[in-house]
Amino acid sequence: MPSYVVTGASRGIGWEFLRQLSNDPSNTVVAIVRDKSATEKRVLEELNARPNIHVLHANLTDYNSLKAAAEESGKITGGSLDYLIANAGLISAFDRYDPIGVLGENPEALEADLLASFQTNVIGQIHLFNLFMPQVLAGNTKKVIALASGHADLSLVQKFHIDLAASYTISKAALNMAVAKFHAQYSRQGVLFLSLSPGMVDTGLLAGLTDEQMKSLGGMVEKFMKYAPDFKGPSTPEESVRDMLSVIEGASVEKGDGGAFISHKGDQKWI
Ligand SMILES: NC(=O)c1ccc[n+]([C@@H]2O[C@H](COP(=O)([O-])OP(=O)(O)OC[C@H]3O[C@@H](n4cnc5c(N)ncnc54)[C@H](OP(=O)(O)O)[C@@H]3O)[C@@H](O)[C@H]2O)c1
User: Fold this and answer.
1) What is the per-residue pLDDT across 125-154, written as a single tens digit (0 to 9) for each?
2) 46 CA distance to ligand 1 centroid (A)?
3) For residue 57, how many other CB atoms are within 10 A of its CB?
4) Ligand 1 centre from 32 Cα, in Å?
5) CB within 8 A of 3, min separation 6: which ones?
6) What ranges do the domains of the chain cover?
7) Can you identify the CATH homologous superfamily of domain 3-263?
8) How many whole angstroms separate alpha carbon 200 and alpha carbon 74?
9) Which of 138, 210, 217, 249 lies in disulfide reach of 80, CB 3.0 to 4.6 Å?
10) Which pLDDT tens digit goes with each residue over 90-134?
11) Tally of CB atoms within 10 A around 270
12) Which atom of ligand 1 is nearest to the CA of 150?
């Protein structure tokens, strides 16, 4: 009876993890979300209140809420956890359409955006990993997966001059290092830590954009097309999660995957 914790399971990729993992009634899936009642309602309406789903509240910016969720989750899963999927993340809207030098014209706003991104995408994840570590160590599978972003690949940004999403990608690059540090400490005890990029996935971020915003993003997509000429557009959450689950199953400390930063394809091809 494998056990899973998925953060950010209210929508997007996290919801799809919840949906696919709970398809198997022998899996126990704990969803950690900010709005517990909204997610419970969605589970009731769309997944017929599957009994193997348990919804808990926590906010990555609130240590005590994470601590309470970890304690509650441990009671549900019998004190051990097989897979921790750290999916929740802050995808900043502030940094999405302008390069870092333009963002810097409003230094207070840039600083606030950098801090908010770091708080959620780095510090919150580190607290999450630490709080669940005793349960992961007691689990059978011992896999901790952080949702990374290929966009935070230094060589991609460097070679293709991808200048948008500075706060977001800086925080995701820092998350990769945090994952590597956890690997450095815990691989000896058999725990796999992995930074896993989902590819470019349509989770509704493009809805309702102005023409100017579309133009800005269009420029970035053109650069991605140069990077991956066969790119046909974003994948669905369903495809991405299916691919990621296959990578998660195949990855192991023994094979040298610990602390790595890889894509849903299991390599470093990001889209
Ligand atoms: N979509 C892509 O193309 C793509 C590409 C690369 C990486 N990723 C990464 O994949 C993950 C999921 O992406 P997505 O597209 O599904 O994002 P999304 O649709 O924006 O969903 C983000 C999720 O994170 C939760 N969340 C945000 N801040 C939180 C906080 N402080 N505490 C707890 N939960 C919080 C949100 O909860 P609420 O519902 O309460 O807001 C939501 O469930 C993210 O880590 C993202 O960086 C996505």
Assistant:
1) 999 999 999 999 999 999 999 999 999 999
2) 20
3) 16
4) 12
5) 27, 28, 29, 30, 77, 78, 80, 81, 82, 83, 139
6) 3-263
7) NAD(P)-binding Rossmann-like Domain (3.40.50.720)
8) 33
9) 138
10) 999 999 999 999 999 999 999 999 999 999 999 999 999 999 999
11) 23
12) 6
